[in-house]
Structures are given as structure tokens and as C-alpha cells.
Design goal:
By secondary structure, the protein is of the alpha+beta class. It has 2 domains: about 35 residues; about 80 residues, SH3 type barrels (Roll). The protein has a 5-stranded mixed β-sheet with strand order 1-8-7-6-5, with no helix packed on it. It has a 3-stranded antiparallel β-sheet with strand order 2-3-4, with no helix packed on it. The protein is elongated and about 85 Å long.
Length: about 130
């Protein structure tokens, strides 16, 4: 094989590669995803209901009611969150979020964590890091 034949072979391979990439690009442009607007109506309901906490009964969470273990927390002016564990599952819950659609995390402080569920406020002592 001489150099002219090697050059023609390489140019042919590069051309086939370029045509293949161009075809893939065109297919991706044609089959672009259809992005739909998702409305979360129940989130507004949860936020509006959280302001009614003055009428709710306070009680300590008993082990039978709350089978989650707090394994970590992040406390600050914005985006406070906790990490809870139930069995082998771990959950990261931010203030205002629901824990398995049952308990809403109302507030986090270094001393206590407050959940709302079933029309009651549950106060849990924060023992993480102590």
C-alpha cells in the first residue's frame, strides 16, 4: 500500500465518521424532548395550612408515632434541613417539606425539631452532636 491509498482510506473513514455524527445530530434535533409545565397545586395548600399552627396541639413524639431516627441536621437562616433514617432508608427533609407524605417539617433549631402531622405539632429533642 502506498501513501496515496492510505490517505484515501483515512479520508474515507473520517468522512463516514463525520456523516454519522451529522446524522445523529439531526436526529437529536428532530427528536427533542417535549418539556411540559407541571403545576404543584398541593404545595400551595401545604404552605397555606402551615400558617394555622397556632390552633394545633403540641405534644412530644412518642416512639410508636415517630419511628424515624435523626442522624444529622443543618441549621441556618435559610435552607435548614435534617437527615432522618427509618430502617435502611435515609431521607433529607427541608423546612416545609413532607416526610413520606405524613409529617411536615415545621422548624429546626439546635435544641429541638418540630413536625406537624395529623393535626398535631410534634416536638422532638435534637440530640445530634451532643
Amino acid at each position: 500500500m502506498n501513501t496515496k491509498q492510505i490517505k484515501k482510506l483515512l479520508i474515507t473513514l473520517i468522512g463516514i465518521f463525520a456523516i454519522t455524527l451529522s446524522a445523529i445530530l439531526i436526529l437529536n434535533i428532530i427528536n427533542k424532548p417535549d418539556i411540559k409545565n407541571i403545576q404543584f397545586s398541593n404545595i400551595d395548600r401545604v404552605k397555606n395550612n402551615s400558617s394555622d399552627s397556632s390552633e394545633v396541639e403540641m405534644s412530644d413524639i412518642k416512639q410508636t408515632d415517630f419511628s424515624y431516627t435523626i442522624i444529622g441536621y443543618r441549621y441556618g437562616e435559610e435552607s435548614s434541613s435534617i437527615i432522618v433514617k427509618k430502617g435502611s432508608k435515609e431521607f433529607v427533609v427541608y423546612e416545609g417539606d413532607l416526610l413520606e407524605n405524613t409529617y411536615e417539617l415545621m422548624s429546626i433549631s439546635p435544641d429541638e425539631i418540630i413536625f406537624k402531622g395529623s393535626g398535631k405539632l410534634y416536638k422532638l429533642e435534637n440530640k445530634v452532636g451532643k
